[in-house]
Write a structure and sequence with these properties.
The chain is of the alpha+beta class and 154 residues long. It has five helices and eight strands, in the order H-H-H-E-H-E-E-E-H-E-E-E-E. Strand 2 and strand 3 (78-79) form a beta hairpin. The radius of gyration is 14 Å and the shape is globular.
């Protein structure tokens, strides 16, 4: 596999204990690797620099079977960006989630969505190639099948 950017590797962006436990092959295609490279260089590295602390990637690319296994978005019109290599759930090491979330959402980074999920991690997602980033800042509570999202505007 290999280095996608200065601080992010392909291995960490495809690693999954759930995939390992359930025997799910989460090997990405070259198209997904290309998308993960763009994600790492366009959003993850700049967000890490903005935060001033390292990020632990809790979940990056998830094949369809893995996304289903972890309860990721899969209803019509709401497919998880993780399936396309366009999102990562990150935990800042040495800074609060809220502080890092606010720095990202108030920055000029071209994120599609930045979400504090369950007060446990920050989802950072990019728009599909050619699409204009929505720059949605949200909080999410609940769990698989019962997520509740609230827009952050202030």
């Amino acid at each position: 596999m290999g280095q996608l950017s200065e601080h992010f590797t392909l291995e960490e962006l495809v690693a999954s204990s759930t995939a390992q436990e359930r025997g799910i092959d989460n090997t990405p295609s070259q198209e997904i690797i290309d998308a993960l490279t763009v994600l790492a260089t366009t959003l993850l590295e700049p967000a890490r620099a903005l935060a001033g602390v390292p990020f632990h990637v809790d979940s990056g690319y998830r094949c369809e079977a893995l996304n289903h296994a972890v309860g990721g978005a899969d209803r019509p019109g709401h497919v998880s960006e993780h399936e396309f290599g366009r999102a990562a759930d990150c935990i800042p090491e040495g800074a609060s989630l809220q502080e890092v979330f606010d720095k990202i959402r108030l920055s000029d980074l071209p994120y599609d969505q930045v979400i504090i999920e369950c007060n446990a991690w920050i989802h950072i997602g990019m728009a599909a190639a050619g699409a204009t980033p929505r720059r949605e800042a949200l909080t999410a509570s609940g769990g698989p099948g019962a997520w509740h999202y609230e827009r952050v505007t202030a």
